[in-house]
């Protein structure tokens, strides 16, 4: 997880702005979300952390999260904008990347390593594990905003 937050979920960089993402194929329920972004000229750095509650769920394959600022066009849908980390509470960690699915939405991909060649696969309710209370999903993405 990104270490850019104080214990109360307040960004450590005073220039950061709060971002309230919208979701597709994902229900936050009583979960906790901390989302901040920093604008440095045309460069956007966005950080998202989600702590799952008992009613937080991935409702279908490929949940998406809105970007805080519209991205420029031209990013390939497989182009990694930054790292993603998942914590299966008390069991272990999984890595992945966040990619653009449009100029306004992020999509998460997790590393699957049980094949001859590692590959990036969609998040689902059972991939990379069965999600439960106190599991965590977090990512940092860097991209250029639209002109």
Name the features.
147 residues, mainly beta, Adenovirus Type 5 Fiber Protein (Receptor Binding Domain), ten-stranded antiparallel beta sheet, two-stranded antiparallel sheet, globular
Spatial extent as radius of gyration: 15 Å
Count of separate DSSP helical elements: 0
Mind summarizing the main beta sheet? 10 strands, antiparallel
Distance between the termini: 30 Å
Shape: globular
- Strand % is 35-45%
Indicate the CATH class. Answer: Mainly Beta
Poorly predicted sequence stretches spanning 5 or more consecutive residues: 1-9
Q: Give me the count of strands.
A: 12
CATH fold category name: Adenovirus Type 5 Fiber Protein (Receptor Binding Domain)
Number of domains: 1
Structural class: mainly beta
Estimated helix fraction:
under 10%
What is the topological layout?
Elements: E1 17-18, E2 23-24, E3 26-27, E4 32-40, E5 43-51, E6 57-58, E7 64-66, E8 82-88, E9 92-100, E10 105-112, E11 119-122, E12 136-144
Antiparallel strand pairs: 1-4, 2-7, 3-6, 4-5, 5-12, 7-10, 8-9, 8-12, 9-10, 10-11
Report on the structure:
By secondary structure, the protein is mainly beta. It has strands spanning 17-18, 23-24, 26-27, 32-40, 43-51, 57-58, 64-66, 82-88, 92-100, 105-112, 119-122, 136-144. The protein has one domain (17-144): Adenovirus Type 5 Fiber Protein (Receptor Binding Domain). 0% of the residues lie in helices and 45% in strands. The strands form two sheets. Strands 1, 2, 4, 5, 7, 8, 9, 10, 11 and 12 form a ten-stranded antiparallel β-sheet that branches. Strand 10 (105-112) and strand 11 (119-122) form a beta hairpin.
């Amino acid at each position: 997880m990104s270490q850019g937050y104080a214990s109360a979920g307040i960004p450590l960089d005073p220039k950061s702005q709060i971002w309230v993402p919208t979701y597709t194929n994902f229900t936050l329920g009583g979960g906790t979300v901390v989302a901040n972004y920093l604008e440095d000229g045309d460069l956007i750095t966005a950080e998202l952390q989600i702590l799952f509650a008992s009613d937080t769920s991935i409702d279908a394959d490929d949940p998406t999260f809105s970007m805080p600022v519209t991205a420029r066009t031209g990013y390939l849908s497989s182009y990694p904008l930054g790292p993603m980390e998942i914590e299966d509470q008390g069991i272990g960690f999984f890595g992945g990347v966040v990619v653009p699915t449009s100029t306004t939405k992020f999509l998460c991909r997790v590393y699957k390593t049980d094949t001859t060649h590692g590959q990036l696969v969609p998040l689902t309710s059972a991939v990379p594990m069965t999600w439960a209370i106190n599991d965590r999903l977090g990512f940092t993405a860097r991209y250029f905003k639209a002109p």
